[in-house]
Amino acid sequence: MSKSSRPQGGVRAGRAKVDELRQAQRAAERRSRLILVAAVSAVVLLIAGVVGFTVYNDVSNRPSLDAVKTYTVTRDHTTDPVTYEQTPPVGGNHSPAWLNCGVYPEAVPDVLAVHALEHGAVWVTYRPDLPAAQIDTLKESIPDTYMVLSPREDLPGPVVASAWGTQLVLTGADDPRLAEFITTYRQGPNTPEPGAACTGGSDGELPPTTG
Amino acid sequence: MTEPTRADGPAADHRDDVAGQDGGHRTGRGRLFLTGLAALLVGVLGTLWVVQARSSAPTDFGADAGFARDMQTHHAQAVEMALLVRDRTDDETVRTVAYDIVTSQQQQAGQMYGWLVQWGLAQTGSRPPMAWVGGEHAAAHAEPDGSMPGMATPAQIDELQGATGVEAERTFLRLMIDHHTGGVAMAQAAVAEARTPEVRTLATAIAAAQTSEIELLQEMLDARA
Description:
Number of strands of chain B: 0
Structural class of chain A: alpha/beta
CATH class of the largest domain in chain B: Mainly Alpha
Radius of gyration of chain B: 31 Å
Helix content of chain A: 25-40%
Structural class of chain B: mainly alpha
Strand order of the largest sheet of chain A: 1-6-5-3-4-2
Mean pLDDT of chain A: 91
Distance between the termini of chain B: 101 Å
Oligomer: heterodimer
CATH topology of the largest domain in chain A: Glutaredoxin
Mean pLDDT of chain B: 88
Number of domains of chain B: 2
Number of domains of chain A: 2
Order of helices and strands of chain B: HHHHHHH
Low-confidence stretches of chain B: 1-20
Order of helices and strands of chain A: HHEEHEHEEEH
CATH architecture of the largest domain in chain A: 3-Layer(aba) Sandwich
Shape of chain B: elongated
Number of helices of chain A: 5
Largest sheet of chain A: 6 strands, mixed
Largest interface: A-B, 36 and 36 residues
Strand content of chain B: under 5%
Low-confidence stretches of chain A: 1-5
CATH class of the largest domain in chain A: Alpha Beta
Helix content of chain B: over 70%
Radius of gyration of chain A: 35 Å
């Protein structure tokens, strides 16, 4: 274009040169705009990617409660001895008195502990031969209230977490599923009597037998 | 229109510079425009996010959920101590104050339980007690042993459990003054940091009620010195 216009005269040649420069300038503008758009898009994509990955990572790394077993259980009061279908029990008929929440160094009566479960407590039981360090870990990792911790014979695993109608057999005190179980089931939606106390009951003594 | 004249002039050598300057200026303007657009986008998204966050249910880590969980535990111990002293003294004044504490705090704890259910959050948080309190409310921070402010230790509960008569009254009044002092600090932190009106309203009421009750308890304790 500029070549053909050159013989036409100085004005045209100058105009062509200007057009050429303008075009080059526009191209440069387009390029820099493109670069800017690409850079902004890259930053946005990067942020979206980081956020997405963090969320995905958080969700997928959460300990799975798939192994939690659920049961349908009765809930009458009785002062008679009760044989439970699960070990340790996750519900069923129980004493009129509930076990006070807290840490027990000795085994506690099932009929009392079941009543604490009914009030929303999570009962963490461990084999009597569990190493002392692991027992300490358990003591430190549980909330102050609505929790019962006690040793128990005949457990299906080193540590077992139970709430009303639910149970999870754990590999030990450092099993990451324990915290997840407590968060989900302590005073959880499975609680038959939300708001009922976990104090003012029994420290382990059975109430006198009636009729 | 003026450009051809300029291009024809003796300053032809100058043109590249002029064009270059001009182009740089335009690119700068374009960049400014795009930056402005990006800032606007961020601003709009940020505003939407804040509006959404304010109108939606409280989060698992916020002050609303933290207060609703921790104050339930705190109230539960007040109820426990009040019931203990009612069984250990015949003094009508102390028994009346204890009755007041049992019924009001149990009802308040029920409200907090209900909030968490409504918000779709667990009653148990994944963070330690009082972790929801910001740095400016030091009085509401957890004790060095990790417990909430004003909570009686298991040994102090045992002490109350083992006492009777005026000794039980004194122990109860002493423990309950500390308990209320911690409770007021927690409630004040919630008034400042919670974002739902229901939490701020109840926290305001708790702070006021327990502040005035501390005075009453102190007078009762002085009368039994």
